[in-house]
Amino acid sequence: MLELKNLQKTFAKGTVNEHIALDGIDFTLNDEDFVTILGSNGAGKSTLFNAITGAFWPDKGAVVLDGENITYLPEFKRAQKIGILFQDPMKGTAPDMTIAENLALAYTRGHRFPMARALQKRDTEYLRERLSGFGMGLEDRMKMKVGLLSGGQRQAMTLLMATVANPKLLLLDEHTAALDPATAQKVLAITVQIVKEQHLPTMMITHNMQSALALGNRTMMMECGKIILDIAGEERRNMQVEDLLKRYSGRQGKKLDNDRMLLSE
Amino acid sequence: MTLFLGSLQLGLMYGLLAMGVFISFRILNTPDLTAEGSFTLGVAVSAMVTLAGAPYLGLLAAFLCGMAAGGVTGLLQTKVGIHPILAGILTMSGLYTINLAVMGASSNVSLIGKETLFQQLFAKLAPLPKDIVKLMVGAVLALLVLGLLIWFFKTHLGLCIRATGNNEAMVRSSSINASGMKIMGLAVSNGCIALSGAIVAQYQGYADISSGIGILVVGLASVIIGEAVFGRRSVTLGLVSAIVGSVLYRIIISLALSSNVFPTYFLKLISAVIVAVALSIPTLKGELNKARIRREGRNRA
């Protein structure tokens, strides 16, 4: 369970460029939750993720994961419990290392004896098996350098790397936005499958309203560093993209110039 | 023949330097200028410990001191966030004083007539010619360190260091301490470089405060020549090619110097030119390729 308590973050405080990125976020992600997050650019979605992963610290408030306050824990220490995927497929893998080496690194997650052999047969077999479940043919190329793979293949690999060590939280920051529609569908399908199998509490940022409502069990919307909408259950089931849009602009108290803009990918 | 034998001896001993440079330059992906100071540190420590009567311990002490020097550069890079090149320059500059202090405030220490490990082995392996013994020492040391490094970069720790040089963001999100890995990598790199200086000092029979000047270029030249022969593939192959490159470099240099075209003091300029030319090849190839495309395109039009 992830609890965010009154998270606040202001960038460039005291200058003309002052920007309130997080404005008192209170949020609880339950263990069975798969929440999709919507919001325009600059709404604070990625900032929220950064505060959770520790890329920077919030000015105020607390991040509590499974009862442990991790607000000021170094990034690499909390990474053991948090898997994250970014939009850029290049970010999550080491291009000059082989598929097997990349996966082994993620699988052992720093708790292997430093002088032990990095690639152990049993691990490699297990990882190969997991890869074969993706149906991308990656399992036959374990010794290939990751830099030679396509974006979709790299993102699928990164997904496995982020989840293989059984984290307590999965963060997806528009992880299919840079992929072609067919590959994006495939990576999304793999995502859903992994989340289901491992019962992973998941937060997914997306700009696609359709999939925001179709995937997961909960949807929230951010604007100006605040959560302006948080729906689940009946309310969410009855929600249409059109309603969502109306609600969006309604809560903002201003009509968007072009609602259609938000509907497209 | 003597020319070739001498190149082989030196090439193997400087092969340790080449492997150290390979670690920082190719694996960690940072040009580390600490090398200039840590090589001399190895020379100085090895000479002084040999003078005290323990030539083998001199090698070990040099290796550890080199690691410490690399560690300092690593700390400056990661914990205080100084630019990698500047961090190396700072350590190198500071080491100049430390090296002088190690050598008892003198810029030159002679080991002539002292019990270096070569002298001890000449006596022990008496019937063998001295040149063969020297070659054996170089080969054993280079192969030993090569074997250890190949093993090291296949361990979990080694893999983490490689990943840090390759994609730091990914390493941090895999719960690996990227700063720690950089420090560790630079320590191992400079340990090897100092060890190279240590054995060279005992081989040539003196320590000199200026031994390290231009040594990074020598290491880079070796790495690049090795890559020209073997290509850039795995880390294991990279380490092997660093040693081979070091030997080839020595042969090239001794040929250039023995041809009497260049006086000895041209050494560093020749090294620098080799590195500059080798590093510019990919760009030049690209430009030539562009010129060809343009020419053919015009002809067709």
Describe this protein's structure.
The complex is a heterodimer of chains A (265) and B (301). Chain A is an alpha/beta fold. Chain A has a single domain (2-263), classed as 3-Layer(aba) Sandwich (Rossmann fold), CATH 3.40.50.300. Chain A has helices at residues 45-53, 75-78, 99-108, 121-132, 151-163, 181-198, 209-214, 233-237, 241-252, 260-263, and strands spanning 2-11, 19-29, 34-38, 60-65, 68-69, 82-85, 169-173, 202-205, 218-223, 226-232. A six-stranded mixed β-sheet of chain A has the order 6-7-8-3-9-10, sandwiched between helices. A four-stranded antiparallel β-sheet of chain A has the order 2-1-4-5, with helices on one face. In chain A, a hairpin with a 2-residue loop joins strand 4 (60-65) and strand 5. In chain A, helix 3 packs across helix 4 and helix 3 packs parallel to helix 5. The model of chain A is unreliable at 253-261 (pLDDT under 50). Chain B contains twelve helices and two strands. In chain B, helix 1 (2-27) runs parallel beside helix 6 (130-152) and helix 1 crosses helix 10. Chain B has 301 residues and is an all-alpha fold. Chain B is globular, with a radius of gyration of 20 Å. In chain B, strands 1-2 form a two-stranded antiparallel ribbon. The model of chain B has no long low-confidence stretch (mean pLDDT 93). Classes of the chains: A alpha/beta (265), B mainly alpha (301). The interface between A and B is medium-sized, with 36 and 21 residues.
